[in-house]
Structures are given as structure tokens and as C-alpha cells.
Amino acid sequence: MLRSYGSGVRLSGLDELLTYLDRVNTVFQRGKKLRQIAFLIIRARADLEMAIEAAFGGLHSVVADLMRDLMEIEMLLRDFEGETKRIQIWLAADDAARHKEFAPVVLRTRYAKRKNVKRADLHEELDYKAHSLSLHVTTFNVPLWSRGTARSSDPFADDACFWELFEHARRFVRVADRLRKRLAPRIPDGPSPRKDLRRFEDAWRRTRQMQNLYIAVLRASREPFSDSAAQAKVRDRT
Q: Contact 41/25 with Cβ under 8 angstroms?
């Protein structure tokens, strides 16, 4: 995988991302209100760093679990962006109160209400459930996310780790940037996703292309033959 990806845009974009998050952490440390939650930026960066290691180690399910954690941080920062007073509430809450007020399902419900949409219509609703199905013990077999070390040479399964990394990281940095601008708009030299993540954005677009190709292949494999002559040829050959 290192030989395959080493000189490509994906690793270049991820390298840019990790450097960017170091800068975001520096800005959060400088802001009086942001300093209290700067450890969430550090945690998010650690999730991404570990996910990169897991991707190259063939530990697909580990990547999925780490991206679930990143989603929860994203939802939390988004909640703080909506009502900044919730930062202090979250920091001061005990475990029971924190679960009651800030569990992922509560965060999504509150966000949907703020946007005046149904929670089921949120882009991350199905995504989060899929990650939860991958993490928890169920009878459901998550496509592409095998437990243990992957031993197949399926390029889609390997690259799916990068679909996850880039998509969830992209959502996270945008939420963190909005929160930073709201709580500390006067801090100079703040990093900007638009200006400082160009290689990352290019890599994100490439992963989306690969993901769309996989979905197209999957759909095509499930479509029944509509041409009776073609079906007859298949029967003859088999």
C-alpha cells in the first residue's frame, strides 16, 4: 500500500491536514474560550493519525471506529457553535448529565430542530448508524469493514479507508473553523480550510470519484438483465 499510495495525492493531502490541525490547535490555545476545549482538536488529530496507521495496516474496522469518534467530536463542536453557553455546561457536567444532554443522538436531534428538519434527513444520521453497526456486536455484516487484518487485495476495500478519512476530516475542519470564527474572530493568522487545505481538497475529490465508481459497480451488479437475448446467451454459456 505504501508503494501504491506513497507518491499520490492522498498522502500529500493527509500530511497537509495534520499540519493544518496543529495550527488550529495553536489558535485554540490562544483563545480564552477556545482554550478550554482545545483538547478536542488534539483528540481529533490523534484519531486521524491512528486511522492513517490503521489504513496502511489493513485494519479497516479500526478506521471505521476512529471515524465514529471523530463524528462525535464534530457533532459536539457543532452544538457549541449553535449555543456557545453549552461549552461550560458540557465541561461542568457529570457523566449522567453529560450523557443526557450531549449523547450523539441528543446532539443530532437538537441540530435538526435548530435547522427545522427531521433528524432522519440529516446527512450524518445513516452514516453514524452504519459506524455504530460496525462497532457493536450484531448480526449485520458491514460491507468493506472486515474485522481483523484485511487479507484480500480488493482495491475498493483498501481505498474505502481513505474515503472515510477525507470525508469525516473535511466535515470536522469546517465545523472547527466556524466555531473558531465565532468565539475568537479577532485572533490573527488563523488557518483557513479554503486557503490552507488545497492538496487535501484535491485528494478529497479523488476519493469521492473512487467511492462513486464503487457505488456504480455495486448497483450494476445488482440490476437484473432486461434484455432477454442477453439472458439467453448467458444461459447458453453456463
A: yes
Residue 14's identity, in one-letter code, is L
Distance CA 130, CA 89 (A): 29
Distance CA 155, CA 87 (A): 42
Q: pLDDT confidence of 22, banded at 50, 70, 90?
A: very high
First to last CA, the chain: 37
In angstroms, rounded to a whole number, what is the distance separating the alpha carbons of residues 175 and 81?
A: 8
Q: Is the pLDDT of residue 232 over 50?
A: no
Look up residue 18 and give its three cell numbers. 495534520
CB 102 within 8 A of CB 79: yes
pTM of model > 0.90:
no
Q: Is the pLDDT score of 231 beyond 70?
A: no
Sequence-separated (6 or more) residues with CB below 8 Å from residue 180:
24, 27, 28, 31, 34, 187, 190
List the grid coordinates of 90.
Answer: 458540557
Look at residue 183 in the predicted model and tell me its pLDDT: 94
Residue type at position 137 = V
